Amino acid sequence: MGQARRQYGAGRRPVLFGAAIATLGFGRSRAEPSAEPIFDSHFHIIDPKFPLVANEGYLPPPYLTAEYLAAARPLGITGGAVVSGSFQGFDQTYLRAVLAELGPGWFGVTQVPPDISDNNLTDLSHAGVRALRFNMYRGRIDSVDDLVALATRAHAVAGWHAEIYADAAALGPHVDRLTRMKVPLSIDHLGMTAAGLPVLLDLVSAGMKAKATGFGRVKMDVPKALEAIAARDPSALLFGTDLPSTRAARPFEPADVTLLRQVLGNDLARRALWDNARAFYV
Predict the structure, then answer these.
(1) What is the pLDDT of residues 66-109, one digit of tens each?
(2) Rounded CA separation 261/32 (Å)
(3) What gap in Å lies between CA 68 and CA 198, rounded to an integer?
(4) Dihedral, 267, 271, 273, 278 alpha carbons, nearest 10
(5) pTM of the model
(6) Most CB within 10 Å of its CB: which of 14, 65, 109, 117?
(7) How much is the pLDDT for 238?
(8) Which strands form 106-110's sheet, in the order they lie side by side?
(9) Non-local CB neighbours of 269 within 8 Å, separated by 6+ positions
(10) The CATH number of domain 2-281, selected from 3.30.420.40, 3.40.50.2000, 3.20.20.140, 3.40.50.300
(11) Share of the chain residues as helix, strand and coil, in percent rounded to the nearest 5
């Protein structure tokens, strides 16, 4: 990994936009053909026939299952986790429909109200939901007590893990509370910022997973972060496309997969692209 780090990370801008990836010698829209399957741990489906809620005035354009599969299949993606966005609120109808359409090998990550019943948690689990998502990115994080309470109950009732969308730097005061929680955890988009990487590494050391997603939305040196996380725990990285990359400065490109392989090497990349990611949901 050290050689890859020197080639791809040293002296480069902390955010890998498309132009930066092009300087690495990879095309903007092509990835090396995959002889091994890929599990996409993070993507969104946006169907306007189901309820959508504006987030800070933002409503994303449609992105249907057929569009996603047209982009995913050429990469070798054969399974994954569709993640509820903030713009989908607590709606479960879209997620049930998508999971039924995708079939076996695909799972859901949802958002639920704190007073959801145990029966409804179990019912969603039967539909293929495997995790709760907590969107804590926009705004200060004063407490994680509500997160811990709901995540603990969902894990006890349905076996779900919890996924956090936050700047990892904002989780610094809550590391002890999160690591004492007996619920598997992941954080989206490599923890978002370079300032958050030390906190993320502390959480990874305690067992948290880190989604290798959103390379075009983060503010960090992506190769450096990938190397550091994999060195701390080879089972921690979970690849995801983040398609359709709503509100990202630069959307996902197939060259992101090539970048991950080049930085991590074959063994660690295979873990991130399939072994680690799939094991977290199955």
Answers:
(1) 999 999 999 999 999 999 999 999 999 999 999 999 999 999 99
(2) 9
(3) 34
(4) 160
(5) 0.89
(6) 109
(7) 98
(8) 38-43, 77-83, 106-110, 129-135, 161-165, 185-187, 209-212, 237-239
(9) 260, 261
(10) 3.20.20.140
(11) 45, 15, 40
